[in-house]
Amino acid sequence: MTKTIAITGGKGGTGKTLIATNLAINLANNGYKTLFIDCDVENPNSNILLGKSLTTPDVEKESIAIYKPSFLQESCTKCGICRSACYRHAILQFPDHFPSVLEHMCSGCKTCQKVCPSGAIITDSRIIGSQYFLKQAYSNLDLLVGELNPSEAISVKIVEALFHYSDKLSEKANYDFIIIDTAPGAHCDVEKSISDADLVIAVTEPTPFGEHDLNRILDLLDVVGQKADIILNRSNLTHYQEPLRSLAKTRNCNIIGEIPVDSVVIEDYAKGLPFVLDTRNFPAKSAFNLIYSKILEGITMEL
Q1: Mapping DSSP to helix (H, G, I), strand (E, B) and coil, where does residue 174 land?
Q2: Residues 6+ apart with CB under 8 A from 115
Q3: pLDDT tens digits, residue range 100-146?
Q4: Backbone phi, then psi, for 121, in 5-degree steps?
Q5: Which of 264, 270, 269 is nearest to 285 (CA)?
Q6: What is the pTM of this model?
Q7: How far apart are CA 236 and CA 263, in angstroms?
């Protein structure tokens, strides 16, 4: 009965990863076996917030490869069907010349291979990124991180590989919770990350950009048939709270908590210390603990 919670947001810099890491730590500290998946594969930084390195011997690293076509000139008739079928225009072919592939534009969909009438396209592969698995990053907490290689563009393939690997992990570990830190924005990586979640939490901030991009992520959630609870982070940063509250009411979403700007959080962030592990009492921690209680109360009713 693993429960999956996706932490998302329409824009970067709202504190999405900060919320996700501290939620995962709190669950683990309260005895729940938890898997944290960092799906922000173009800029993964959950390990930094957790104070963990991805280059130590106890981290399991695997390369992630996708299909690429390889052309057999002795079989190719130069018909151009593969080029016409490639929706990403990754196959380059001039008249009376053999085709070639622009690797960084290829999504690995295999359409070219399927439509080739002469069997001239065989399977090859190329590495586009890596995944890192750290067992027991903290007690009861495992960490899975994906990273897209520089200059690559097919980031959703890394996200898909992470979920494929997490399914294998779940079969063995019997996780109580999986916490997903999605990429910012409202695109295919995020859609893949939130579609099957039991609970989606959108993190935003009291700014016009925060309002605009919260609306975007709520639109995407509507498309995939999901609803979201909202956390208003840095809630006292500006005086722009009311438009966010009005938007939440209009979109039939609950704001489950507001976390104020707090210098202690900034200090802990710089140290690589999840702020829920700070023994001091401070406003942001108190606000977060109330949010944690609401999340736990709502989602564990089905456990």
Answers
A1: coil
A2: 81, 82, 85
A3: 999 989 999 999 999 999 999 999 999 999 999 999 999 999 999 99
A4: -115, 120
A5: 264
A6: 0.93
A7: 13
Asked whether the beta carbons of 22 and 138 are under 8 A apart, the reply is no
Nearest 5°: the CA angle 153, 135, 198 is 65
Tokens 């977060």 correspond to what residue? 288
- Which amino acid is residue 263, in one-letter code? S
Is 204 in contact with 232 (CB distance < 8 Å)? yes
What DSSP string describes 54-102? SSSTTEEEEEEEEEEEEE-TTT-----HHHHH-TT--EE--TTS--EE-
The distance of Cα 39 from the centroid of its chain, to the nearest Å, equals 2
Beta-bridged to residue 258, according to DSSP, are 232
pLDDT digits (tens, 9 = 90+) for 10-61: 888 899 999 999 999 999 999 999 999 999 999 999 999 999 999 999 999 9
Question: In whole angstroms, what is the distance from residue 290 CA to residue 301 CA?
Answer: 17
Q: Which two tokens stand for residue 62?
A: 């695997």
Per DSSP, which regions of 195-282 are E strands?
199-204, 228-233, 254-259
Nearest C-alpha neighbor of 80 from the set 120, 28, 139, 134? 120
